[in-house]
Amino acid sequence: LPGVMLSGGALRLAQTYAVAPGKRAVLATTSDRGLEAAAALRDLGVQIVAVADVRPEITERGRQLRQDGIAVFPNYTLVQARGRKGVESAVIGAMNPTFAGTEHEFDCDLVLMSGGAMPATSLLLQAGARTEYDERRGHFAIAELPAGVFAAGEVVGAIGEQAAASSGELAGLRAAHELGYGDRSEEHTSELQSHH
Fold this sequence. Notes:
Layout: E1 4-6, H1 7-17, E2 24-29, H2 32-43, E3 47-53, H3 60-67, E4 72-74, E5 76-82, E6 89-94, E7 104-107, E8 110-114, H4 122-126, E9 130-134, E10 139-144, H5 161-178, H6 186-193
Parallel strand pairs: 1-8, 2-3, 2-8, 3-4
Antiparallel strand pairs: 5-6, 6-7, 9-10
């Protein structure tokens, strides 16, 4: 159905090509990345009429959007985009099926989806790592690394430039120590761990 797209594509149209992807949007997300897209598109002139966030609790970014007048529905998802030749409305509903009658329909010409970004875990999984779903981040994350395997950055939960750099330094120190090199004093590694 024309008018259904990824939030990243809508942002690219608006930011790079100055093309409005729509006038009134409903956005469904699994992470703060979708909430950031809603804020950016709003700032570019798209009216965000509702955000359905599958996470059970509203985040700080979600509260900020609410304060800005955007309806944010935690524990909701997109149920249906309706229209004939293009999007005319969107229906969102509660994730918990026992909440009968919790669907809401919004007039819109744009439905946006944001599944967030998941760090690449395939090489770590091939090495024997184990993942589990991280509800806070909205994707699978490394839960356990096998002995002798080291990782850094968002794949191990270090979010942000400083935290990623610290986790990289820590992983490097651990790898060097594993090989019999370097000083992995407890004081230094504890300090690095506190950054992520």
